[in-house]
Amino acid sequence: MEFTTKLPGAKRSVFIKDINLEIKKGEIIAIMGHSGSGKSTLINKIAALVNPGNSDYTASSRGTTGREYNSEIVLQNDRFVPWLSVYQNVYDAIDKVMPNNPESEKQQTTRNTLTMVNLDPYKDKLPGQLPPDIKQLTAVARSFAMNPKILLLDEPFLALDATTKGLMHMELLKLWHLDNRQKTIIVVTNDLEEAIILSDRVVLMNHAPAPAIKTIIDVALPRPRHKKNMLQNPLYIEIKDRLLNFLFDRYSSCN
């Protein structure tokens, strides 16, 4: 499979080519690659493929009596309604996918979502009053509450420090486990530890001018995964070395 575009008066341009990627239900996939390798383009195209007819790649979804939500995208700086509280922003998302469900059910789902990831102390805060980690956690929790089949994460934790990022990984995996690992998650990242801690497989993308999947690395580490218990694990070290070699290969080949 190959994704292309053509601008008026321009030649046909290939965004990504030679795509052959099978993803299992409930699997967590990490996508890594240098700038220009098509990582974000790939997950946007995945969103378009699972939401046919959505030409601008905006995801759609469905609750039990609402619209079908096949995928939901969480970005580095997710968009909130700035004048709504954390509770109201989560409720608003749930209301969109379950418009005909009883009000009491939607409110209970909102409360349960906030409680699951310890957001109760922030429920009355506005987005502008939140620290970056809580804002991103709210975005992830809101997306889970919308119950999409596939959750697409485009470097959502990039701006966070290492310690806070590690806590976000734990919260994301907690939500995934509470969902009985039914949610398929695809995350774009260039953070080696993030890829290893979160994913079942890491998809490595070639850089431009011919973006494509170079190779796929299995992460056969047992779950649950705790960073402090894995640092000396031979398989963890091996996978990390392979990812490091991939990321630095582009630059070493230029010397």
Model description:
There is one protein chain. Helix 2 (86-97) packs parallel to helix 4. Strand 7 and strand 8 (213-218) form a beta hairpin. Residues 1-14 and 52-68 have low confidence and may be disordered. The longest helix is centred in the last third of the chain and has 19 residues, at 234-252. This protein has one domain: P-loop containing nucleotide triphosphate hydrolases (Rossmann fold), CATH 3.40.50. The strands form two sheets. The chain has a six-stranded mixed β-sheet with strand order 4-5-6-3-7-8, sandwiched between helices. It has a two-stranded antiparallel sheet with strand order 1-2. It has helices at residues 39-50, 86-97, 103-116, 132-145, 162-178, 192-198, 227-230, 234-252; strands at residues 3-5, 13-16, 28-33, 71-74, 150-154, 184-188, 201-205, 213-218. It is an alpha/beta fold and 255 residues long. Helices cover 39% and strands 15% of the residues.
Work out the helicity level.
25-40%
**The number of domains:** 1
* Overall number of strands: 8
Low-confidence regions: 1-14, 52-68
- CATH-level-4 superfamily name: P-loop containing nucleotide triphosphate hydrolases
